[in-house]
Amino acid sequence: MSSYSPIGPVVGIVGAGQLARMSQPAAIALGIELRVLANDPAESAARVIVDTRVGDYRDLGDLREFAKGCAVITFDHEHVPTEHIRSLAANGYVVHPGADALVHAQDKAVMRERLTAIGAPCPAWARVSSLADLARFADEHGWPVVLKAVRGGYDGRGVWVCRAPEDAAEVLASGLELMVEAFVPFERELAVLVARSPHGQGVSYPVVETVQQDGICVEVIAPAPGLDQEESAQAQRIALKIANELGVTGLLAVEMFQTAQGLVVNELAMRPHNSGHWTIEGATTSQFEQHLRAVLDLPLGSPRMTAQHVVMANLLGGDEPDLFKRYEHVMAHDPGIKLHFYGKEVRPGRKIGHVTAMGSNLDEVRARARHAAVYLTTGEYT
Known about the structure:
The chain is an alpha+beta fold. It has twelve helices and 17 strands. It has helices spanning 18-30, 60-67, 82-90, 99-106, 108-117, 131-141, 165-172, 229-246, 279-282, 287-295, 327-333, 362-378; strands at residues 10-14, 33-38, 51-54, 72-75, 125-128, 145-149, 159-162, 178-182, 188-196, 202-204, 208-213, 216-222, 250-259, 262-269, 309-316, 338-341, 351-359. The mean pLDDT is 94.
């Protein structure tokens, strides 16, 4: 047990990944103290946050002990059991987002039921447990279909595009709780990040385009290029409506598909999000500061951009475990590039950091971000 004595309100973050880690600079500036619950003291945020407690987020006793002395409890992932969140609230702890909201980011079927009920644009979907269920759905909506694990999917895991019944046989036999959605022939993927405070103030960041590769986001472009003003405003209205209807407190990321017929909501996340990392340098108020403001019910900050174009490129681990020696080239080549590393062991394909570039010419900004990301990952020039 730490003897650390805080001098400001304590925000307890369950989870010690990069989202908690990147919240620390914002907390320092605001005079807020962070406490994190880590599974291991070597985790990303545990390496930089003084008040780190080691425990199991699946253990209610560990959560209760962690929550003592915190002004509010929040999360850097959605995996805390819903019943534990309800229990913390019943014991008098302030938890944002609450269980009734967070369940929509934990359970995709619950999310679809609720979003459909409030009129948010969604693909056709159904719960399935057999090949017969899947075949009936495909007979009505056509192949291919998208099979999803109801809980636990992330970065492309737990999602299977099935073009025929045999593509789904192994997954359906796995015992996972599953749902199926109609395949959406989208033109590109968008994301809207909004924040909502407990007393109902809401703000929206500009709509961004996200570029995926093998189910992992590799690039975020802010604002989404070529998106007309009307569709941008519609996307923001949809996200703010979802935040309000679901009672979200804190950040809400709404991932969407842009199609020829309009916008379709894909996924939700109720925490700082990969699609918002660009805001650290690219917005007046970063997503991490905004989330802290929101969960403490402070007035929300301005989401306005600080540059005409901002591009964030994720860094995925390659074969070189020591990327520090590659900094010199990137920094010398482009003094305006911003590097963020997450303090994680480098493994091929793992998100280990991101780079951000800003400027007035989108093509140049994208090229700068891509050059830095490729060189840091591969040691090769683009």
